[in-house]
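ARCHIVE CARD
SHELF: 3
SLOT: left
DATA:
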Amino acid sequence: MKHTDLIHSYGNLLFKKKHLEFSRDLSWEHFMNNMGFSAYQSYTEAEAMLKSVEANLDHLREVYAQTHLNNTSSNNNYYAITIGSAEKNNTSPCLSLWKRFLGSADGKDFVTSEAYFEKGDNGFVHIHAIIQKTRGWSMSMPKLRKRYGNHKGKQHNFDIKRISGIGIVKWQNYIKKDSTKPWNMEVNELLQ
């Protein structure tokens, strides 16, 4: 199994685990409230499936660790990016910064890139992204932050940091967590 396939499989299993945990907890709540046998049966089925998924996650962690140690030919680096703004609904500043970054010389050699809009608890629009590069940057990280965080003479948050190992999977899952919400689905099309 390829390195990236392992990461994607792990991410898919983490989403499945979350869904099963929700289903299990909901079935338990229904059982406790209504004392229905079918709710208890749903609870035990979800619990059994959850144990299976957790075993698969453990297995993938082991395979990933072994593959990562053995894979000396891969020089790809992963980076987590957050582009923030002070906007509550306007996606333009973040979108402009992201597109400018993608169109730059540094953005030309991405192996992969994935980005999603998010509106946090405070309601501010931002983008979370993950990119994979084969080589380093043309400038230092602080210079990248300053250069690609500048929009119409105003400095916006443009945070970039290198991630590795299981941190890659965690970040990939984190950036997708709200992607199925109505607002997110609509604005994420702008990133395609």
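SLOT: right
DATA:
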Amino acid sequence: MNHLEKYRVLVKNIPALALFSGSSLLIMASDRLAHAIITAGALIWTHCLGFLAIHYGARIFPAQGRVVLFTFLYAFIASVYLFLLWIASPILAFKMFFIICLVPVFSLNSKLFEKFEAMSLHSKLFASFSEAALLGALIIIFSLIREPFGYLSLSLPGGALGLIPLFSSDSESFFNVQLIASSSGALLLTGYFLGLYRYLMEKKI
């Protein structure tokens, strides 16, 4: 099985609720590259550490109420990431608070710990990392389109204000370019990427 087939199986196994929460992250976190990088890190951190905690704690977890327990577990792991971000940059942590709060929703709704029970721990961990990294990579790709065309700038996380500009321009752009920076522009990009994805799946490239 090649890499494309593996990703195809992985996407088919992601529940609709996880895709919905993932699309919310894609729209909100891809406005700037700095936000996209922080979100990608939060996804990998929460997804992988949450899976490991569930895997090793499965024997001691009660049979009933596991959904509530997993919710608190993922939320706690994401809050640790947010706390570390607050230590590094309080302003950036404040800006990313709501977005990082959505990360446990994606991790919980993906239900990776239920889908690959027959796999080894190494394979499960790789699948968990791949699922989070795939969404994180999409968010970063979207930000590389939205920020330069929408804000005529590109930024990295850090600095006193939470953003370090790689370049910035004060010149005005047309409305149709500025539209890319808005939520409606992100939805348009999502539609184009979905169309490209379906084309590639049909052609089996």
